[in-house]
Amino acid sequence: MSRIGRLPIDIPAGVTVSIDGQNVAVKGPKGELALVVAEPIQAKVEENQVLVTRPDDERSSRALHGLTRTLIANNIIGVTQGYSKGLEVVGTGYRVQAKGNNVEFALGYSHPITVEPPAGISFAVEGNNKVTVNGIDKQSVGEVAANIRKLRKPEPYKGKGVRYAGEIVRRKAGKSGK
User: Fold this and answer.
1) Burial of 176: CB neighbours in 10 Å, binned 0-12, 13-18, 19+
2) How many angstroms separate the CA atoms of 176 and 136, rounded?
3) Measured distance CA(100)–CA(151) in Å, rounded
């Protein structure tokens, strides 16, 4: 039995979970999220908890059991607390600044790069080298942060580029001089 999948998910106060067949809708103080549960897995609400069950012990059912439970738990955390991912811009002349809802990066290219937030995502700029991506959907927050990091990945010689907050960049030794 899945150790993660069999754990019940507590529903905090102010959050409503409605299940209609394979559709799970979570509504909370920060917003609303929906999830379609994969076919053999069943979810049900009992006594202020969400229980996720699987019908058999087939390989695909076992794989989806823990995943489904975690996705529902992530949605509940998202509508109550939200998710955020920090990014740091490192390098001489590299900087970031807010332009309304958008964020503009200067990353050593001949032009500035403007990033618009998708629906449900907001940016917070601290100083001129830190950006925080905020939202209620864990997957979309991570995806937007990864796309921003992709603009200029940290390079291994000087460590310049966009990195996650707290990310450790392995440095290489340069050419040895004579």
Assistant:
1) exposed
2) 48
3) 20
Question: What tens digit of pLDDT does each residue of 123-153 get?
Answer: 999 999 999 999 999 999 999 999 999 999 9
Of 18, 152, 7, 133, give the one whose Cα is nearest residue 75: 18
Amino acid making up residue 131: V
**Amino acid occupying residue 31:** G
Measured from the Cβ of residue 120, the count of other Cβ atoms closer than 10 Å reads 16
Q: Report the C-alpha gap between 55 and 38 in whole angstroms.
A: 12
CA-based Rg of the chain, rounded to a whole angstrom? 21
Sign of the alpha-carbon dihedral angle for 113, 114, 120, 122: positive
Rounded average pLDDT over 92-119: 95
Q: Which two tokens stand for residue 130?
A: 């830190």
- pTM reported for the whole predicted model: 0.90
